[in-house]
C-alpha cells in the first residue's frame, strides 16, 4: 500500500451502478482495474471488452479468492452487500459498497465490525451529495448565509418508477424494502449532510403499497436509473411503493422525507430539498435527473428580501466518490476513520422508519441510533 504501484481493483456487479465504478477505476490514476464479477458470462464479456478488463468471474467468491486485489467495489442487489463486503474485508481487501449499506442496520453493523477487525477502509456510496447544487446548499449553511437550519423537506417522487416489477427490488428478502430504503436513504444522506449531521432522536413514518401490488407503476427506463432487466425475477410485490417520515432531531429541529416509486403525479421524476434556516432558506428542484437542478437561496426579510438563483456546477458523482475512496486507501494513517459508520447511521434511521410504519407509533432513538426499548 505504501509503494508507488497502482492499487489493484475488482468490481462485483456489472449493471448501471457497477459500470460507474468500472469507468471510474479505468479513468483515475493510481489504480488498475483487474477483474469484474457477475452472474452472466455474456454481460461480463461485453463489459470487459468495452472497458478493457483482463479478467472476468462468474460469481463473487472467485473474484475475492484471487488474492491479488487491494480494493473491491460491491454493486449488487442489496441482500448481497453484507456477505461480499465481509468476505472481502476478512481477506484484507478495502471495500466500497453501493448504498444502502445493507438490508438492515444489524447487517450493516456486522460489516462495520468486519472493517474494524480487519483494519481496512469500508465506505458506502452516497453519490447524490456530490452534486454541485447539493454542495452549494451545504456551502450556504457553512458560511452562515442560511443561519441555523431548523427544518427540511426532502422529496424524491416517481410516477412509474418501480425498478422492474418482479425483480429483486420488489422482493422484501433481497431488497429490505422499497423506495424508502432505495431512494429515501439518498434523501436522508444529503439532508443530514446539508444540515450538519444533527442527531436524530425520534421517527414517525407511514408506508403504502397501493400500485405495485396491482402490477402498476413499473418502469423500463434505464436512463432514469429506475428500470431495465434486473436479477431475481419472478418475485411478488412485497415492499412499499410510497413512504413518508417525520424525523425529529436534538435541539428541536425536524426533517420530512417523502418518496415514491409509483404515484399518481406529474412526470417526469422529481427530487429535491427545501431548507428553512434562521437567516435564510434554500429550495432545490431537480426534474428528470437534470444536473444541476433549479436552486434558489432566500435571504433577508421584508423590503430587504433577496431571492438568489444559483448556477451550480455539474457534480462528478461516482467518480468523485471513488477518487476519495482511493485517496483514503492510499493513506493508512486514516483507515480507522473510514469504517462504514456513516452508511450504518443511515441504515439505523431507515430501520426506525420501518419500525414506526409497522407499529403505527413514533420510535425513539438513543445516541447510537438504536431503537429505545428494543425490538419495535
TrEMBL record:
Alphabetized InterPro entries for the sequence: Gfo/Idh/MocA-like_OxRdtase_N, Gfo/Idh/MocA_oxidrdct_glycsds, GFO_IDH_MocA-like_dom, NAD(P)-bd_dom_sf
Keyword entries, A-Z: NAD, Oxidoreductase
Cited SUPFAM superfamilies: Glyceraldehyde-3-phosphate dehydrogenase-like, C-terminal domain (SSF55347), NAD(P)-binding Rossmann-fold domains (SSF51735)
Signal peptide feature range: none
Boundaries of every Gfo/Idh/MocA-like oxidoreductase N-terminal domain copy: 7-124
Domain of life: Bacteria
Domain GFO/IDH/MocA-like oxidoreductase per the UniProt entry, residue ranges: 135-281
Biased composition (Gly residues): 225-234
Keyword NAD: yes
Region annotated Disordered, chain positions: 211-234
Pfam families: GFO_IDH_MocA, GFO_IDH_MocA_C3
Entry-linked PANTHER family: BCDNA.GH03377
Protein name as it appears in the record: Gfo/Idh/MocA family protein
Gene source species: Brachybacterium hainanense
Amino acid at each position: 500500500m505504501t509503494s508507488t504501484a497502482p492499487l489493484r481493483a475488482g468490481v462485483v456487479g456489472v449493471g448501471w451502478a457497477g459500470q460507474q465504478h468500472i469507468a471510474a477505476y479505468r479513468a483515475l490514476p493510481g489504480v488498475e482495474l483487474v477483474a469484474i464479477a457477475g452472474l452472466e458470462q455474456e454481460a461480463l464479456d461485453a463489459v470487459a471488452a468495452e472497458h478493457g478488463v483482463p479478467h472476468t468471474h462468474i460469481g463473487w467468491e472467485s473474484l475475492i479468492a484471487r488474492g491479488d486485489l487491494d480494493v473491491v467495489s460491491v454493486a449488487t442487489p442489496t441482500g448481497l452487500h453484507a456477505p461480499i463486503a465481509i468476505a472481502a474485508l476478512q481477506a484484507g481487501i478495502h471495500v466500497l459498497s453501493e448504498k444502502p449499506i445493507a438490508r438492515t442496520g444489524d447487517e450493516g453493523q456486522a460489516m462495520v465490525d468486519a472493517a474494524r477487525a480487519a483494519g481496512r477502509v469500508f465506505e458506502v456510496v452516497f453519490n447524490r451529495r456530490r452534486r454541485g447544487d447539493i454542495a452549494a446548499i451545504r456551502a450556504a449553511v457553512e458560511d452562515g448565509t442560511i443561519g441555523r437550519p431548523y427544518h427540511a423537506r426532502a422529496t424524491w417522487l416517481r410516477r412509474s418508477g418501480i425498478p422492474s416489477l418482479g425483480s429483486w427490488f420488489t422482493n422484501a428478502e433481497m431488497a429490505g424494502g422499497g423506495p424508502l430504503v432505495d431512494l429515501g436513504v439518498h434523501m436522508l444522506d444529503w439532508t443530514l449532510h446539508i444540515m450538519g449531521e444533527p442527531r436524530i432522536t425520534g421517527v414517525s413514518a407511514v408506508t403504502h403499497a397501493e400500485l405495485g401490488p396491482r402490477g402498476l407503476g413499473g418502469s423500463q427506463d434505464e436512463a432514469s436509473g429506475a428500470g431495465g432487466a434486473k436479477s431475481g425475477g419472478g418475485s411478488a410485490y412485497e415492499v412499499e411503493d410510497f413512504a413518508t417520515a417525520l424525523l425529529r432531531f436534538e435541539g428541536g429541529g425536524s426533517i420530512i422525507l417523502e418518496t415514491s416509486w409509483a404515484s399518481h403525479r406529474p412526470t417526469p421524476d422529481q427530487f429535491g430539498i427545501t431548507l428553512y434556516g434562521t437567516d435564510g432558506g434554500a429550495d432545490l428542484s431537480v426534474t428528470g435527473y437534470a444536473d444541476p437542478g433549479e436552486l434558489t437561496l432566500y435571504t433577508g426579510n421584508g423590503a430587504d428580501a433577496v431571492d438568489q438563483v444559483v448556477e451550480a456546477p455539474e457534480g462528478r458523482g461516482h467518480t468523485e466518490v471513488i477518487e476519495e475512496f482511493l485517496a483514503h486507501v492510499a493513506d493508512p494513517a486514516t483507515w480507522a476513520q473510514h469504517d462504514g459508520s456513516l452508511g450504518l447511521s443511515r441504515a439505523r434511521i431507515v430501520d426506525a422508519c420501518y419500525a414506526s410504519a409497522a407499529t403505527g407509533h413514533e420510535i425513539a432513538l438513543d445516541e447510537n441510533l438504536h431503537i429505545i426499548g428494543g425490538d419495535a
